Amino acid sequence: MTNTRDSVPMKRYSVFAVAREGLRYHTGWGRAWRSPAPKKKYDVIIVGAGGHGLATAYYLGKNYGITNVAIIEKGWLGGGNTGRNTTIIRSNYLQDPSAAIYDKALSLYESLSQDLNYNIMFSPRGLIMLAQTHHEVRGYLRTVRANELQGVATKWINAEQVKELCPIINIDGPRYPVMGGLYQERGGTARHDAVAWGYARACSDMGMDIIQKCEVTDVRRENGKVVGVSTTKGDIDCDKLGMVVAGHTSVLAEKAGFRLPIESVALQALVSEPIKPCMDVVVMANTVHGYLSQSDKGEMVIGGGTDSFNNYTQRGSFHHAEETVRALVETFPMISRLKMLRQWGGIVDMTGDRSPIISKTPVDGIFVNCGWGTGGFKAIPGSGWAMAELMAKGHSPLAEEFDMYRFREGKFIDESVAAGVAH
Amino acid sequence: MSNAVSALNGKVATANGVTVRDCGLQGMISMRGTFEDENFFTVLSHIIGLEIPDVRTIVSNGDRSVAWMSPDELLVLVPYADVNGIVAQIEEALQGSHFLAVNVSDARSLIAIEGAGAAEVIAKNVPVDLSAGAFGEGMVRRTRMAQVAAAVWCDGADSYKVICFRSVSTYVFDLLAQSAKDGLVGAL
Amino acid sequence: MLILHCPYCGIDAEETELAAGGEAHLKRATVGDSDAAFEEYLFMRENKKGVHLERWRHAYGCGKWFLAARDTATLEVYGTYPAQTQEPPQEVKDAIRAKHPGWAWKENA
Amino acid sequence: MSTRLSTGGRLINRNKPVEFQFNGKRLKGYEGDTLASALFANDQMMVGRSFKYHRPRGVVASGAEEPNALMNLNSGGRFEPNQRATTQEVYDGLTSTSQNHWPSLEFDIGAINQLFARWLPAGFYYKMFIHPRAFWKHVYEPFIRQSAGLGQVPKEQDADVYEHFYFFCDVMVVGGGVAGLTAAMEAAKSGKKVLVVEQTAAWGGRAVVDGGLIDGESTEAWINQTLAKLADMPNVTLRDRTMASGVYDHGYVLAYERLTDHLADKSGARHRLWRIRAGQIVTATGAIERPLSFAGNDIPGVLLAAAVRDYVVNWGVSVGDRTVVVTNNDDAYRTALALKKAGLSVPAIVDAREGGAGAIGAEAEAAGIRVLKGKGIAKVKGGKRVTGVAICSQAGEGAVLEEIACECVAMSGGWSPVVHLWSHCGGKLVWDDAKVMFRPDVDKGPTGADGKPFVIAAGSANGYLGMAEGLADAAAAGRAAAGVKGEGAPSATDAAEKAVAPVWLMPQGAGPKKRMKAWLDYQNDVKVSDVMLAAQEGYESVEHTKRYTTLGMATDQGKLSNINGLAILSKSLDAPIPAVGTTTFRPPYTPISMGSIGGSARGDLFQPLRRTPMHDWHDGNGVDWEPVGHWRRGYAFVRNGEKVHDAVNREILNVRENVGLLDASTLGKIIVKGPDAGKFLDMLYTNMMSTLPIGKCRYGLMCNENGFLSDDGVVVRLNEDTWLCHTTTGGADRIHGWMEDWLQCEWWDWKVYTANITEQLAQVAVAGPKARKLLESFGGDMDLSKEAFPFMEWREGKLGEFDARIYRISFSGELSYEVAVPASQGAAFWNALLEKGQEFGVMPYGTEAMHIMRAEKGFIMIGDETDGTIIPQDLNLQWALSKKKEDYLGKRAQERSHMADPKRWKLVGVETVDGSVIPDGSHAPAPGTNANGQRNTQGRITSTYYSPTLKKGIAMALVANGPDRMGETIEFQDENGGLIKAKIVDPCFYDKDGEKQNV
Ligand SMILES: Cc1cc2nc3c(=O)[nH]c(=O)nc-3n(C[C@H](O)[C@H](O)[C@H](O)COP(=O)(O)OP(=O)(O)OC[C@H]3O[C@@H](n4cnc5c(N)ncnc54)[C@H](O)[C@@H]3O)c2cc1C
Ligand SMILES: NC(=O)c1ccc[n+]([C@@H]2O[C@H](COP(=O)([O-])OP(=O)(O)OC[C@H]3O[C@@H](n4cnc5c(N)ncnc54)[C@H](O)[C@@H]3O)[C@@H](O)[C@H]2O)c1
Ligand SMILES: Cc1cc2nc3c(=O)[nH]c(=O)nc-3n(C[C@H](O)[C@H](O)[C@H](O)COP(=O)(O)O)c2cc1C
Ligand SMILES: [Zn+2]
């Protein structure tokens, strides 16, 4: 049993490499990423090795040649929400700034496996958001038209088309018959862990240091400017600091001396036992609160609502999972006789308008990327791209509207525009 | 008022020895005021003929009851036909003080659950300890019944009443009837 | 699945009977206050990993709002108290300090 | 050959034979058999195929931890995939099929994967299928998916029903083994309310099979007596076939009771999900035996040692005539002895420990069993079933010393306490080097609402594998849970045992070839080599290893594999096991049906359906329903031969010409009363309500603190200190809650009471030129004339025999009255209106007609013109924003720069040049693109309809500088990617001067 922490040069992944390695029992594979001790100083420190943090680092290197970068992670990389989300990817958002960044992300996702030389299993199997009330129909039609002008391909499909794409759905549900859906053919899923791993491997290969099991415990400032961080592995200096810690943003911001309009709450998900393929599309049912897709391994992956109280425990209250399952049993009657295999929670960071923040902060040199709440997996490449641009150049058109000061002006990016009321 | 019908119109269902039954039109007055206020207290007990109940209890006498609903709210139960008269009496008597008395008879439904196992039928739907030791005669609990609000009280051995909003009375009735049908647990 | 003690009904109500209402003891900012003060009131929330003072309504029960001091990391509840108060009662503060000796109520931090 | 023995089998009833099917074959078993024991009785060694390589697989365990024997059960509405054969009891008529193979279990094409296994190590797909790009979606992924998945897909609606049950107790004991029963007895003696659940159908756990004496009695006798005593105690509830599935925060436990899964008669609820609140929870959940990692440890016929003895003792079946026992601890010797006792052959006990076993070793040797010490298995021989084993030194690399023919290998790698429930809510574990196990760190249990621990582990679940120490621990746990002091425990003696040895790989120096054949996770095909590869590649965190290899992610959640896997990882990393740690334990303990989670909430009970008093009439009269929250409202009333939209148009024209009826009962109605009610409403509404004269109505707007419009409705002044506020249908509960929030939490010294009386009243809008005539035809004591009852006033009195309050308000633009009667009279009133209205051409109309008519009038609709981002100023509703008031909710917000920005889009009417209808949601593009390359826009449609009144399309839109651009023509998107020209006009399309409504 050999294990070397020395850096074996990274090997390109390909079917040939696997074939070759197979012959020698895979003894030749090197580490996907190095595990270095921290240096004294970096040009840029990114706190948080989730998808967003890693993608930020990756594009700092790739797009701006900034590679003297450390990514500091208190646990294991990808172990935050990136490693526990239901992996839904789409870009058909209503508001311009959202559509821009999510669509950037989607187009980067489409070639990410090749870009990273790591198969992230991006699976554009299509995504349907069900319309089950007249109000939802109107809301989605609005999105379709908005997307048309934003250059985001999406379309409205009728109930029969929904059924055709997803035979296991009950479109004639007695309570909320399916009236149609918003369909994005390019939407789908990706293997969440692989997204983190693929970026990590690429960052490491560019010479960046990913430092795991290292918690940032303080943010050191001098004259209103950041100079470094204190960590469980000692002090590390930097010129610029990117905070990309999702559910823990408030905790870290407090250490840097500023506040953010963020609350941390638990969001839950669960999977069924695996069954043979039966659903080749992702379905979201917002009226009844539940979404469903089938993983490549065969489990039905189910996501639902958030708890309504602040929580850092990565557990949630069972009744939310229950509400979700109830809704899905009604919408997909076949799942009633499947069994729940595992349930879990993640701590998501919710802003006042439920849209993210990618912004400079009151402290010179500190940038923050957070507030992705329940939907930031799909944004990872786009968010990293924009955050890198902001950190490198001080300005990014994709990030501009996601400034943290928008709340003061009363300028919101509200995707939940359905008030859901009628006379 | 010959036209008046209760939302459940006399529905009854029985299974496994438990009967779920619409109690028909029931007079109900929602009373809000300051319980500590002597005047409120005296006027009410004078008109209704009952004391103000303690927290989470109901007091009854014949066809009249008063149930504790919250620290400033009571539910007064009287015969349906008497409600308007009583509301008028209260308004008259409490004039000048800060209170609210409204007729909510038609806004709610009253359902009886009776028979050995009645508590279990309810316990399938409410997050409340309904075991005899914990929830005895004269106790009231406002709570969640499956997905709606309800008030439950015990008015005798194996006898319970449930009040819910009128619009969901069919839901509540069907829920209880189904719970009775699905079998008893044998644990309460 | 939290249980919180409703100070009005005197019962330990489970979360499904309750509705959460966010941070407690907010000071309403309004006409005449600065943009920053108004932003603070509407958006800037205490989001501590630790003690959180928060509002809950016994929505399916008595309908009353009450306040709770709860730990967001351990979910321990240090106490609940009526909503009609400007600051947590002494016994709640004591219970918090027993676990978080350095804790200070924001008004006299 | 596995077979039923002629004697033995304490759990089966040989007088009750049952017939069941497996893969189409009719087989016999006995009542009390599990599907697994019955299959063994019928020599069915192979029961399925593994996930990735489609390897032949047999039963390995005898309980909930089984990873291999997953079955599709039954058919039609009772079809269920992935059911463990080891926990499914057989009954007459049960049908089962094995999974994950094609065309058949014996001949499976997918098994070809085994040939490539070498090239399919952990994580191989991350490294492959990258090029060409399109191939992943169209070629690789479909292929991978097709071969993945286990059970078949249920096709039909579930034929069963499910239910929930709330239960409260002081002490909940999980596990009905001797530890659980002991703890329960101690707790129960205190008088506390105790619930005991056991997942299987049999009480007693392992003890009966393992033998020994408790209080001088046989374990079986002791268990029966204890059970009988507990059953007699009024404060104790005992439940078998009930699995505690999860421990959640604040002492909430879910337990899953399987009521009919073991019965041919399926009536009543199938599963009952108990929602338990327990003061203290005792987890006496036992321990699970670990496999040993040697080459070929997955071949059918290799079982856990304790399972082999369970099959013999509990069900009277032998897995094979000759069983080789391989172990690193003393317990497995019991299997050898039990087999011997049953007359079966045990060619050898292979003990990896140089020193062999304690007292029981001598016992085995005395029974004539050959014990090989310091030895291991080099390799299991066989394909679809075991044919023999090759023996080697444990210390070496696997040179074969001898081969022994056998049909069964009984392996034991030691025992792991079942710590799942302890851990679900944060209970911590410690690694016990001596016992080679993770056990609960008793000082770090999960804590509850009071900050104190609420779970106590007991017996073998707490790491006390010996009977005597386990009983002592359990008795103490029971007392601690009940909060009583005391001493003593049922007595037993533990024979001197030799310590278990940490044997994680067999032989210790096994090379790559062997490691590729040594399974850790049977179902997911994770081998020792995979975990080592993960470590080598830097997936060092146990969580990375889990996710990279899928170790422990199968339906058994690693009950057998996790500890072995992390031990291999720790060796690969050269780090101690506790430093590597475990992955997170998550509920459920074993999978629970989605049906049970949903409970009775399905079909009609899926959600509450709110009905108005007139609901039944609508239902019987062509209604096309529209869900609004939990209410259902009539969208239109369709007559024979009509399409929905024909009905809508007819309804509108009829209101405009005759008279229509709208069931408006769902509108929120909130009483606001008290000396400070006026002041309160002035804060809530943007306009002034305190000045509203008694007898009058006023339309009001409400904003949230962010300044956005949240609701609107007509406010009525009933008397000096009482107002009645109408809200939207969806707003009633929300606004009532909103009012209480402000009254209780901000202005608690204001004297105001509110009451939501929405459902007290049935309300009908009677609208149309003939509305007055229709109402007058009822007679009564109210003068409804124009002069006596002007617009925006209300009256109360008798309308015929009905007690009515009438508001003269209009949302349609016609002469209109809204009449409220007590809800109990609503149906009668509706019928009376229809009857008396016949001569006036009365027709009911639905929400869509109402929507269109208000749009014709240019009235806004919450939810159409507003979407949570709209302020009154956007809708030109400045007139409703009181300038006299210092403050109202939302006022400060509306002063912020973005809200006061003149560039905000404003409401206008829009009319297409060609009279067509603009599609819903259409935007008006503007020249150029923004910084992100998106087309600029200058407005969007908020409502758009065909107006049957005006016979053309009409719409409302929010447009940049809209009100200043009256008459201008701009372009909106059409349905096909093109544009439609439309003119900006006044939003009021119909009767601008209000002549119709003021008649
Ligand atoms: C159950 C669930 C389902 C979801 N479903 C979807 C979905 O279907 N589609 C979708 O698009 N999105 C979904 N999301 C949201 C999505 O997962 C997140 O928005 C996204 O993963 C956030 O990525 P991140 O990199 O910002 O955060 P994370 O992945 O959480 O990474 C932040 C990292 O920061 C680390 N960290 C925190 N504090 C410190 C510190 N002081 N020092 C060092 N490191 C620190 C954390 O350990 C963590 O690893 C879901 C989320 C959850 C919880
Ligand atoms: N010497 C050894 O190596 C060794 C190892 C293991 C067990 N044992 C013997 O086993 C016995 C231990 O007794 P015990 O009572 O601690 O354990 P046990 O295994 O006998 O009983 C535990 C019981 O809990 C049940 N259970 C587990 N999880 C459950 C859940 N989530 N919900 C409901 N039920 C659940 C199991 O079905 C089982 O009946 C003793 O006889 C002991 O000597 C010995
Ligand atoms: C898309 C997706 C699919 C998953 N599939 C499985 C699965 O098949 N088996 C399993 O045990 N867990 C599965 N999980 C859950 C993980 O085991 C784990 O619970 C989750 O990543 C959260 O981590 P934690 O439970 O360690 O906190 C899946 C998670 C995700 C996000
Ligand atoms: Zn209460």
UniProtKB/TrEMBL annotation, chain B:
InterPro entries membership: SoxG (IPR007375), TrmE/GcvT-like (IPR027266)
One Pfam family from the record: SoxG
Protein name from the UniProt record: Sarcosine oxidase subunit gamma
Automatic annotation (TrEMBL), chain C:
Matches recorded under InterPro entries: SoxD (IPR006279), SoxD_sf (IPR038561)
Origin species: Marivivens donghaensis
Alphabetized Pfam families for the sequence: SoxD
Protein's name in the database: Sarcosine oxidase subunit delta
From TrEMBL, chain D:
Domain annotation SoxA A3: ranges: 517-598
Biased composition (Polar residues): 929-940
Segments for region (Disordered): 918-940
Pfam families: FAD_oxidored, Fer2_4, GCV_T, GCV_T_C, SO_alpha_A3
Domain Aminomethyltransferase C-terminal intervals: 906-991
Domain GCVT N-terminal: 614-885
Entry keywords, A to Z: Oxidoreductase
UniProt entry tagged with the keyword Zinc: no
Similarity remark: Belongs to the GcvT family.
UniProt name for this protein: Sarcosine oxidase subunit alpha family protein
The organism of origin for this protein: Marivivens donghaensis
